[in-house]
Amino acid sequence: MPFANTEIPGKFQAFLAQRGIRMTEQRRAILNVIETAKKHLDAGQILRRARKLDPSIDRSTVYRTLGLLKRHGLIDELDLMHLDGEAHYYERKLNRDHIHLACLRCGRITEFVSDLFESLKEQVEKECGYRIAVARLEIGGYCSKCRT
Amino acid sequence: MPFANTEIPGKFQAFLAQRGIRMTEQRRAILNVIETAKKHLDAGQILRRARKLDPSIDRSTVYRTLGLLKRHGLIDELDLMHLDGEAHYYERKLNRDHIHLACLRCGRITEFVSDLFESLKEQVEKECGYRIAVARLEIGGYCSKCRT
DNA sequence: TTAAGTGCAAATATTTTGCTGTCAC
DNA sequence: GTGACAGCAAAATATTTGCACTTAA
Description:
Chain A is of the alpha+beta class. The first copy, chain A, has helices spanning 11-18, 25-36, 43-53, 59-71, 115-128; strands spanning 41-42, 75-78, 89-92, 99-103, 109-112, 131-142. β6 (131-142) of chain A pairs antiparallel with β6 (131-142) of chain B.
């Protein structure tokens, strides 16, 4: 079940308001797009969808808003093994980190949650003396339907 | 000990020759740069270093060669959390996958090998039915010197 | 009111491609 | 000799920035 939504819609707005960050028509549209997305979107796709809500939105506003959300840890940035160009993909940061699996043949993206991943992060924090802010595990391979 | 070199220099050449891929002056220079690199290099840095060995080398030759090496699984492509621009970084693929830790404050890159990472990959292969070709775990955080 | 945010246009950065000539095998 | 590869220039793609105008708080 990818993108299992266990969060309250509008959470971003509340979070940003709390930090005294201004809410604009444009940001509302962009947040809406990201919060309701059923798949990973790149900046161009976010722009196109946000424009359906507010046609005046500019590309640079999308990038500036993505930067804002990234800085506040509300979204994660993914590459998805660059299956399709060099763009980045964005998703709401959920409570639990998950692994992204990209099938190199069919392009399907699968998400996977694992306790082992959590243990690995703990090990890194302990043994490397790191405080982890963001952990991104992306795997390229062949899914059960595509592997030979 | 990052980049512990357990491989024979010139391995790339042998590997490519075996597959009937032509060896040119330019490729030799690029391979040399990558094989002897002590840190992660992006395409521009590889170009600059390769030009010291063969000044005529073009940027596109570097990209085409990187593509070739990637397709043959000789190098890995990294983002290193995009600490510095959007370029990709390259490194020789070693026998053992390792995790890349990027300090968000000082920019230092640390490498870490973990059995837990290997177990996690096995779990993914088993439970997701994937055959993994490449696994990239990149962590952004604060190293022991930088964390508050 | 006013600092933060926006659109617009132009710049930057990175990577890819078409074409023609060259070279490894 | 010939097909793979190279350089060159131009395009494509992705993202950032300067600036003047607008707007949320």
